Amino acid sequence: MNAFTYLFIAFFIASYAVQFWLSARQKRHVAAHRDQVPVAFSSRVSLSAHQKAADYTIAKSKLHDIDSVVGMVLLLLLTLGGGISLIFDSWASTDWSPLLKSLLSVASVFLLMTVVELPFSLYQTFVVEEKFGFNKNTLPQFFKDQLLSMTLTMAIGMPILALVLWIMDSIGDLWWLYAWAVIISFSLLMSWLFPTVIAPLFNKFTPMEEGPLKQRIQGLLQRCGFNSQGIFIMDGSRRSGHGNAYFTGLGNNKRIVFFDTLVNSLEQEELEAVLAHELGHFKCKHVIKMLITSSVMTLISFAILGWLIHQDWFFTGLGVNTPSNASALLLFMLVSPVFTTFMQPISAYFQRKFEFEADDFATQHAQGSKMISGLVKLYEENASTLTPDPLYSAFHYSHPPAAIRIAHIEQTMQNAS
To answer: What are phi and psi of 321, to 5 degrees?
Structure first.
């Protein structure tokens, strides 16, 4: 062990200590407010629905805590425990090319992590989601999805990983700049292809039928000056009772997607308001801002890795005795979250700021009252807690807590009147 080992251990302990502390706060806070609906929602949400949301939130938190403990142990085994060195040494004993051995070493670690995570996904789907009435999935469908996801990862991810590893081995000291360009280009390409190539492999997307709802939505799109390649209904009810709506795609390949569960639960005016909120993200340039931020952070990360690759203490401090570009990339991907935990509130703050701006846009182009009633229905039907712990939500919530968000919409409506 060296000084970096102790630094890693310090951040490791601090990171997970904060996560478990926040989780404990969240469970206590939700449980303490379980038996009374907040005043702002007392006429809108039943006590039974509020208690269901509390129990659901606590059940998910408990499972996440166990998952985190397993993740902690696995990370220590792979790094300080010598797991990565063992895997790389095993593939190094073969007669294959250096690039193939590096590729298989990295892939083996991620395969191991996927296998470890599988029982938690199963429990979440068939125990937690089932208990609260959300699961519509079946075991055959679950494993079919897992197999398809793994196949796509291998078919798409492995060639990109191989290209990045080749760049690291062949380009020279500025490899990180070329690797960044490849990753960003690939991300943009996948965002463009996702609506028409990837997503239909998992779900059925049916064009919205002609009628009052489609006319209302098309009217909203025209008022907002937004062009898309269609409005689609996704068969989300095949797997879950949760409802949602989203935009997907880039450029002229953008689509508007509604879960069938959402269409069946909200009124037309509420759907229009929810869609107006999503449009707000585009019109307020949140997508571009997030894309630029992500690109800059990725560039900084690659630059840091470009420096760390030449530091022996980085490898030995994390349990790798035979440095390589591939092991450096893998180590950086595994341990960087430990060092960036305390940046989460900053990211969450800006995400919540964007949500407020999108809500403001929605109240300008749709009925604010319908936005509120639609949100309340979504909170109730998705069993989203109305009483999260403030500090926990500051770290983990990309959307403002329900009471704060609805109060903001109401204030915006008052200011406009």
So the answer is: -95, -15
How high is the pLDDT of residue 329? 94
38 φψ region: left (φ > 0), alpha (ψ -120 to 50), beta (else): beta
- Sign of dihedral through CA atoms 261, 266, 267, 271? negative
Q: Render pLDDT for 350-368 as a digit per residue (tens, 0 to 9).
A: 999 999 999 999 998 888 8
**Sign for the pseudo-dihedral over CA of 248, 192, 189, 204:** positive
> pLDDT at position 209, please?
83
Ramachandran region, residue 133 (left: φ > 0; alpha: ψ -120 to 50; beta: rest): left
pLDDT for residue 253: 67
Q: How far apart are CA 334 and CA 411, in angstroms?
A: 43
Q: DSSP assignment, residue 94?
A: S
How far apart, in Å, are the Cα atoms of 202 and each of 195, 205, 208, 232?
A: 11, 10, 19, 15
pLDDT of residue 139: 93
Q: φ, ψ for residue 232 (rounded to 5)?
A: -125, 150
For residue 82, give the 3-state DSSP assignment: coil
> What residue ranges of the chain have pLDDT lower than 50?
none
Cβ contact 269:370 at 8 Å: yes
Catalytic residue among 129, 272, 278, 380: 278
* pLDDT number for residue 117: 95
- What's the pLDDT at 353? 94
Q: How far does Cα 33 stand from its chain's mean position?
A: 27
Structure tokens at 72: 């902690």
For the question of residue 130 being annotated catalytic, the response is no
Nearest to 133 by CA among 386, 384, 381: 381
